[in-house]
Amino acid sequence: MATVRKRGDKYYYRFKVKNGDSYKWIERGDNFRTKKEALEAGTKAEAEWNTRLSVWEPRKVLYKKMLEEWNENWCNVQYKGSTLDSIRKDIKIVEQYLGDTYIHLITPMMMQEVLTNMAERHYSRNRIGKVKSLMYKSMRWAVEQAWLKNNPATSIYVPTPRASKRLGCAPKKELRALEKEEVERILERFGMGSSAYIPLLLGYRCGLRLGEAFGLEISDFDKKKKCLNVRQQLGYHGSKLVVSEPKYESKRVIRLDDDTSRILEEHVTRIQAVKAVSEFAGNYKRYYLEKDGVVTENPAVQEVDFLNRRIETGELISPRIMQHVGRVIHGCEGAFNPPITDWTFHQMRHTHCSELLANGFDVEYVSSRLGHKDATTTWRYYAHLVPAICDKSEKMIKSFYQNYGSSEDIKEERESFDEFKK
Question: Looking at residue 1, what is its pLDDT?
Fold first, then answer.
């Protein structure tokens, strides 16, 4: 039975437990202020011990080793593709600070210092938030594995905007919609015949993500219905090209405008014409998918006929071509004046969505077309367009009621109302 002892003005509890052929005292103290508090805690601790709930010791493992196991056993099940790559980068940041520390010795203050130090080194608040999330989730996993008793990352926080400014945090990069003239210059510089033309066009006119644009197969284009079947994405997992489901499992069919449909039809026709000749000579590149989605040139389970490939040879065009495109548009390579220094491929998709919303397209339709998780996501990222949408809606309402009021019935009602006011 638990007993209580007083030391100074604080109370401690203790209880006797069997230790082999003898007994020993377990004594704990959390500076209980009253004898009742200490006795209640002691009774609970003794009950846990007797049911073997407290026969627990923290696992002595370095944080970097734990992160390795967490990434292997948890992250690889929960995430895929670029998300895993991002997590690996954030793990390297955490390992610089806490990698060689045993997890049971890591305190909330030590983890908070990681975030504060990142702010002082001019990391963005978004990146700091990702590292915070990584530390919290990894420590939560350690608790679930009974390696730790409590999660030390529960109370850590990202520096506030005001503190971030004082500490020197990089400001959040606002993604802007491209001007019409900027889009025209990009599509002119990387025009028809360029390896980057089709992906850029699909990003701007269909709102496809980078991986979705490169993951398209020829069979995904329906020239009769003028639509695209977006059902997979292509991206790098380490050094391997891998085909996987699109983000948020956002498989969808996208209607094409006449011009885009015509361009794709011409592109596919040229590929098939060259392929028919080259395959006869055995020179045309062919690609296959292994069971885990890895793209290979060795005949495997399933052949994949990508839409984005070099027409002359059939060579697959990699998503990494956009790194070259970015350097050109940023003004680092070749002549592109004036340069667009903030350009990213995602801006093509962002511009597509912005133009649709600004011209009165229904938010649910836009959300479905872009493959957003839900319409709330669309509103969150495009809230800056709300004033323009409201203005357009008000004009539509005004026009509707003006037309509605022009009928003879409404005119009579107006005249009756005017007489009533007199």
Answer: 74
Q: Under 8 Å CB-to-CB from 40, ≥6 apart: which residues?
A: none
Give the closest residue to 287 by CA, choosing from 234, 237, 246, 249. Answer: 234
End-to-end CA distance of the chain: 93
Q: Which helix (H) or strand (E) holds 258?
A: helix 258-281
Amino acid at 92: K
User: Using one digit for the tens of pLDDT, what is the confidence trace for 234-275?
Assistant: 998 878 899 999 988 889 999 999 999 999 999 999 998 888
For residue 54, what pLDDT band results from cuts at 50, 70 and 90?
very low
The DSSP line for 216-251 is: -BGGGEETTTTEEEE--EEEEETTEEEEEPPGGG--
* DSSP-assigned states of every residue in 52-107: TSS-------BHHHHHHHHIIIIIHHH--HHHHHHHHHHHHHHHHHHTTSBGGG--
Q: Using alpha carbons, select from 204, 222, 225, 202 the residue that is nearest to residue 212.
A: 202
Handedness of CA 383, 384, 385, 387 (dihedral sign): positive
pTM above 0.70, yes or no: no
What pairs with residue 318 in β-bridges?
none
pLDDT at 374: 86
Buried b (16+ CB within 10 A) or exposed e, 153-164: beebebbeeeeb
Give the tokens for residue 74. Answer: 């948890």
Amino acid at 313: T
Pull the structure tokens for residue 295.
């793209």
Contact assessment for residue 289 and residue 410, using Cβ atoms and an 8 Å cutoff: no
